[in-house]
Amino acid sequence: MAAEAPLRARRPALRWKSRPPGSATTARRTAADRRLGYLLVAPVLILLLLVTAYPLIYNLWNSFHFVNLSFGALPHKFVGGQNYTKMFTSSAWLAALERTLAFTVVSVVLDTIAAIGLALMLHRKFRGRGVLRAAVLIPWAVPTVVSAMLWKTMFDPRSGFVDYFLGALHPSWASITWLNASVWRSWTVIFIADAWKNVPFIAIILLAGLQVIPTDIYEAARIDGAGTVETFWRLTLPLLKPALMVAVIFRTLQALLVFDVIYIMTGGGPGNSTQTLSFLNYQTFITSLDFGYGGAISVMLVVMALVISYVIVRAFRPRT
Amino acid sequence: MAALGAGIALLAAACGSSGSGPAVSAGAKQTIVFAESGLGTEGAQTQTAINGFEKANPNIKVKVDVLSSDSTTYLAQLEHSFIAGSTTPDVFESDVTYPAKFAQAGWVLNLASLHPDMSQFFPTEVAAGTYQGQTYAVPWFDNPEGLFYRTDLIKTPPTSPAQVVSDAEAAMKADHSLKEGLAFEGAKYEGAITAFLTVDSAFGGKLDPQNLNTPGNAAALAWLYDAVYKNHIAPTAVTGWQEGQVQAEFSSGHAAFAINYPFVEAIPASQEAPAVVGHIGYIPFPAGPGGTPGSALGGEMLAINAKTAHSAAAWKFIEYLTSAPVEVARAEATGDPPSLPSAYTPALYAKAPYFQNVKVLNGYSQPRPVSPNYLQVSTDLQVMLSSVFANTESPAAAIAGAAPTVKSDANATPSS
Questions:
Q1: How many structural domains compose chain A?
Q2: Cβ of A59 and B101 within 8 Å?
Q3: What angle do CA A104, A105, A108 make, to 5 degrees?
Q4: Does B393 touch chain A (CB under 8 A)?
């Protein structure tokens, strides 16, 4: 079953290649096909340009201008790199950058490890596997704001079940204030809520990757005497690399832009200790209405996302 | 976030030309749009008032635009309309901290040409609607935050901050159903600032962005810190409490004292623990040496969109909503305290005796800084308070660290 997928994927390519090469009819046909192709994707392309490219370009323009809507009457004059200078010298931005990168590294590593475990489990044959595979995606389908509110309620020291159970284990744990009363406890809850939401999605991507690994190589490995751990490190993990790359890119970008879970659970507190770049950007845009400075922070986030994605792609590229 | 910014900009571009048309006289047949956040009883009472207004002014119809009940979202919704240059809402409800910001941006109408009689309102709230000497918003209702206490547990109201602590400790010893001596808003949000401001003047403090690090402010902050970490009359759970949770703690009989808004007194007895019913005292926070009794000003105001073509009708509507009979009807139905001292009459007290306490607190209530940059100042203050309530910084270090940032943000201009 798992070995069939690559064969199916090759079939269309074989049919395409079966045309007689070099004939004028084929060339005309190819050009017409290409035009039709462009025509068919044009509406979506235009829509994408409107909703993605326009904001990006407009934001880039803003980042080099004074655009503070609190001063609506003032002209949006060109200020050069002033917004960027302000950003790079801002202690708030540097602290938020540090927190965001730390959160990204820790959550990507922990979530990926958890997702690999979950994917391996879901890959095994057991009763109720289909139901579990569907159920595991439920957290991912729940909007982040809703899941953050759920976790916030669960960790509430007065009405949450977490302290209720902890209190059953030890009386002094019955009323622990998790959010905004301690930096590490606040981060712990944020990591848990974030992982609950995102691990299943990563696990499903990895599960798809596991399913295309041919089973015969496992049989060969078993015949050669490879143990479970050795098989995992020397066969599963290398063959999972393409899926792992996609999963890590997705997860990294999500973590880099983390906002809603923090907005709901801590509001960036205690103090500013859970304030990330996206949260700072929200405050700059929405509270201060400073679209120039906010634009610079956004542009930097996009640059970071591109650079990190490139590094991940390079890191996962097969060595020849 | 970039897409959001550009989206708002697009909206502005799309509606940018929609400036105000020729002014429509108050006598002409017209419809005005009123933006408010009221739901439930408050929303219903607003509709009752609108019905009365439309009956008295048959040519003017009022269309209600109910915006979010979450203050941050409400503000964003209003701002998006203004940034887009929309002529609606014609008239809108505004928190006491918004008018200066709106006035600086040119989004609200200077009311000078309409000759409002501001002397009829409580002066502290009038100040909140004034920017650079001009009036931009009219007080609608006035919410002074103060100290609630259980009269069955505390027989005589405390007369000093130290007595609040000793009374709370005694109450906790006497009544084991209490979970805390004091509940207050300690979450990282605007309410933490009003809780601090309620205590502040009792220690001689003043919430002045130009001079935050004063002995009075530091003492007030230290008192709140000590309440959690030294005297243990308040739990660390306050770091997650907004006014709703504080009210729930007090109404359910878990707290001997609570710092909160007057709405706590208007909670129906059916939603209170039996021990609390009929045992609620409400006073300004008692003054310590060198201080004055403390109360923080909250409340809502009414203002007119600078681009409206219906300013005359909008003003008539504001005059109607802020007239004494309409304010009294609202107070009786919803518990929203009138902004007119003249509305506090024996007739009102007969129906809702607690308004006598509210009137007393109105005499002490202190406004938050009136500044177009208040939201940035608020963010700085929230960070300071959150650090102290979480015990990640000492009160002295937090206030010393926040003072320069608060000053700089309060004074920020486009060129800085």
A1: 1
A2: no
A3: 75
A4: yes
- Tens digit of each residue's pLDDT (9 = 90 or more) over A24-44: 777 777 888 999 999 999 999
Any domain includes A48: no
Domain boundaries, position A174 = 90-316
SS3 content of chain B, % helix, strand, coil (to 5): 50, 15, 35
In chain B, the domains with their CATH numbers are: 24-142+297-366 (3.40.190.10), 144-296+370-410 (3.40.190.10)
Is A51 inside a domain boundary? Answer: no
The CATH number for A143's domain is: 1.10.3720.10
Q: How many CA atoms lie within 13 A of B220 on its CB side?
A: 32
A274, part of any domain: yes
ipTM of the complex as predicted: 0.83
Of A216, A213, A221, the closest CA to residue A243 belongs to A213
Size of interface A-B (CB pairs under 8 A): 134
* Separation in Å, CA of B50 to nearest CA in chain A: 32
Residue A149 neighbours by CB distance under 10 Å: 15
Which helix (H) or strand (E) element contains residue B130?
Answer: strand B130-131
Is the residue at A49 inside a domain? no
What 3-state class would DSSP assign to B221?
A: helix
Single-letter residue type at B387? S
- The number of CA neighbours under 13 Å toward the Cβ of A13 is 5
**Mean pLDDT lowest among A35-39, A106-110, A133-137, B236-240:** A133-137
The segments of chain B whose pLDDT lies below 70 read 1-22, 414-416
Chain A residue closest in CA terms to B12: A69
